[in-house]
Amino acid sequence: MFASRHVKHSRLLLRHARKYLRYKDDRLSGPEREEIVAGMTNLREALRTRDRAKIQATSNALDKTLHRLTPVTWESHWRENCEVILVAIVVAVGIRSYFLQPFKIPTGSMQPTLNGIVGHPMAKPPPNILQQIGEFVVRGRNYINVVSREDDQVLEITPKKVLFFFTFSRLTCQRQQFLVYAPPETLSHDFNVFPGRMYRRGEIIARGAIDTGDQVFVDKFTYNFVKPHRGDVFVFRTDHIPGIREDPVMGSPFYIKRLAGLPGDR
């Protein structure tokens, strides 16, 4: 447990040598394979004797052998980095699929417990870009400024996910389109933008600040083993609920509510 540094380095070198043999076994010649195996055997024997000088000598010999047989090339670093990135992605996807999933509160229906996405219409233009960046980092606030370029009418507003986390709205008019960093619900509720509305050329469609909702992690694991309790906050999909429109691409939206009753309650 409390081995010295040279012993830890030697054990790490042995693991690296075993990994190298597994990866390159089909490309190594017989003498090269035997040379690596012999170096590993000598290092193991040195570790058993706990002779520091012998450990360092055999470790350096094995290290030189590996460097001679595996010259460092520019693609080796990329290969190792890609392996690390792929493993991290697999672990993250596994956690997101079975244990914890990030969720942004979409509306203010649960305030003040949870703050949702709230839009603040403004008549004046957004501030300079440096102030916008600062407010986005510190307060999670972004600004939108959508002005009609033509006399036009809104046909539809559809959600669009970017990088799985950022919700945009595709605002489709008869003659023009806009991609707005705001959910469709915020545009309709706070900025009064809805299908069928007419705009003149140069008229403001949506301008103002949008405060992002609270970010939470949804526990997808616990309720497989325990029953929910009255008062718990939970996330559910709104499949087959009358009055809630289902998006043909993204499916039914998710709602977050507090559990007010259990089966059998009256």
Give a summary of the structure in a few sentences.
The chain has helices at residues 5-24, 30-49, 52-69, 74-98, 129-139, 184-190; strands at 100-104, 118-121, 141-147, 152-162, 166-173, 177-180, 198-199, 204-211, 215-219, 233-237, 254-258. With 266 residues, it is α+β, with helices and mostly antiparallel strands.
Description of the structure:
The chain has 266 residues and is an alpha+beta fold. 38% of the residues lie in helices and 24% in strands. The strands form 4 sheets. The protein has a 4-stranded antiparallel beta sheet, with no helix packed on it. Helix 1 runs parallel beside helix 3. The longest helix is centred in the N-terminal third of the chain and has 25 residues. The chain starts with a helix and ends in an 8-residue tail after the last strand.
Give the topology.
Blueprint: H1 5-24, H2 30-49, H3 52-69, H4 74-98, E1 100-104, E2 118-121, H5 129-139, E3 141-147, E4 152-162, E5 166-173, E6 177-180, H6 184-190, E7 198-199, E8 204-211, E9 215-219, E10 233-237, E11 254-258
Antiparallel strand pairs: 1-9, 2-8, 3-8, 4-5, 4-7, 5-6, 10-11
Tags for this model:
266 residues; alpha+beta; Substrate Binding Domain Of Dnak, Chain:A, Domain 2; four-stranded antiparallel sheet; three-stranded antiparallel sheet; 11 strands
